[in-house]
């Protein structure tokens, strides 16, 4: 681990809302990395190549958010399982003249569910059913997280344009998971949500409010765990309805925390390339997680 001055940043557009600097700076303090810094840089797809070409040896890594998770691919080599398979990376690490690309979103989602189950003393069952709301890049990572967790045999994708991302079914087929797609307004969508063991909402902002209203109007109980990747507003309308109907609801800050823990460990050289290919591939870094969680909770 290099304790000298190193620079990192999160890139995307828009970026002003990002809590990544707060998390990474807390991690540097916990690790005693006084010379490390991390900031937000607004960047679109057209500007990425020139920006990467301007970086000097003082840069350790980058976090990538929308719309750059696929755009970064030609500029580095995928270094972990999910970056290779999905073609989506949220992390770039600069080391020894190379640029390594990682997907830690998959780990972040799986670890959020795993931590919630452990905290409640729940042993995950086999043959679980799952739903994903939305079918963009984060939905692809959510599907991979279900694969990583194991025991999920069927996933339903509910989206405004359900046939827009056929690659989701292909990912499922490679891992023995049956994937079907339905429209948000499908007559069976609400029942599928209520019966699901696991649900991930990937629709940004208030996009899932209509789903929340339909669940509330149906009035039946839900039995699964929801992870809503949105963390502003917090809690979302979907989370509030889900808990009122008897389910467990996790906010997007849980995914944000765990994907950032993985990023920090990769950027600082404290983790191997494959450490986050499985939810339990390495022991949790408890002190680091605690410091980052405390900083996040103070901000929220």
UniProtKB/TrEMBL annotation:
This chain belongs to the protein called Shikimate dehydrogenase
Q: Which GO terms describe its cellular component?
A: cytosol
Q: Name one GO biological process term.
A: chorismate biosynthetic process
Q: Which GO terms describe its molecular function?
A: NADP binding; shikimate 3-dehydrogenase (NADP+) activity
Superkingdom as given in the UniProt entry: Bacteria
- Pfam (any one): Shikimate_dh_N
UniProt keyword Hydrolase present: no
Q: Keywords, A to Z?
A: Amino-acid biosynthesis, Aromatic amino acid biosynthesis
Species the sequence originates in: Bifidobacterium castoris
Q: Where is the Shikimate dehydrogenase substrate binding N-terminal domain?
A: 10-91
Its pathway, per UniProt, is: Metabolic intermediate biosynthesis; chorismate biosynthesis; chorismate from D-erythrose 4-phosphate and phosphoenolpyruvate: step 4/7
Q: For the Saccharopine dehydrogenase NADP binding domain, which residue ranges apply?
A: 131-221
InterPro entries documented for this protein? Aminoacid_DH-like_N_sf, NAD(P)-bd_dom_sf, Sacchrp_dh_NADP-bd, Shikimate_DH-bd_N, Shikimate_DH_fam
